[in-house]
Amino acid sequence: MNNRNRGKNTGDDVLFGTEKQLEKLRAAVSDMHYLLSRGYPEKTSSELVGNRYRLKSRQIQALRGASASELQLKERQTKQVAVQDLENKAVFLDGFNVLILLESLLSEAYIFEGLDGCFRDLSGVHGTYKRVNQTLKSVELIASFYKKSGISKLVWVFDQPVSNSGRMKQMVADFASEQHLDWEAELQFNPDQFIAEHAEIAVSSDAWILDHCKSWFNLVRYLIHEEELSVNSVRIIHDEPF
Question: Which domain of life does the UniProt lineage start with (predicted)?
């Protein structure tokens, strides 16, 4: 067993652990939402807001993840489905996106609740994925969801160019075989587009997928409540998510 996890970075408590910083981030998300809703590009908006509030790079990363335009929020709300809508349906899961978020959550890293009700983390693949102590537990949580929801099939989609994606595909296949689960695993060069085009129901917190898929399910929010997970979540929004 390795000793890796996806816990907090040094300095995260300073950036996200005080009410002063959270109030600054909430104001930044409100401003970012205003700009996005009026057609400003995300990069320009985050630069303007980041400069105004003197945000550090990880705070800007959290800001981008939490923000969306009014049109994006309305369209995502329209396409979101509840757990009771999943029975006998095939669900496509954004493999690294969901795994890394769950690994971060289980490592007690900060995760951030966005305007759309999705949680997002500050970790990333950066061309290489490495298993951590929380990887198996994350897969087990997804298996619990699979069994409780009554979905007909779960399709994991991994980024083929990412190092170790083939190993993760095999791990998922082996786990499914041992547990007698109807799972499939795909390697795709453009997993976001593949999920958007092929999934009847997508599971991801990736903004592009949420904006282009047919429908989506908020798996991590479901797991937090259903499994009563302890979460180091940061709410940097003023209004209730939809």
Answer: Bacteria
Give how far the C-alpha of residue 3 lies from the chain's centroid of Cα atoms, to the nearest Å.
23
Domain total of the chain: 1
Whether 82 is covered by a domain: the verdict is yes
pLDDT in tens, 28-64: 999 999 999 999 999 999 999 999 999 999 999 999 9
Count of residues in the chain: 242
Backbone angles phi, psi at 15, to 5 degrees: -75, -30
SS3 202: strand
The verdict on residue 32 lying in a domain is yes
Q: Which two tokens stand for residue 137?
A: 């537990």
Q: How many Cα atoms occupy the beta-carbon half-sphere of 181 within 13 Å?
A: 27
Helix locations, 7-161, DSSP H? 12-16, 19-37, 42-53, 57-66, 70-79, 95-106, 135-149
Phi, psi of 63 (to 5 degrees): -60, -45
Full residue range of the structural domain in which residue 178 is found: 12-235
Instruction: Name residue 67's beta-bridge partners.
Output: none
DSSP-derived letter for residue 237 is -
> 111: which 2 tokens?
């995760």
90 has which bridge partners?
153
> Encoding tokens for residue 9?
């970075």
118 HSE (CA, 13 A, CB side): 29
Residue 231 lies in a domain: yes
**Residue 2 resides in a domain:** no
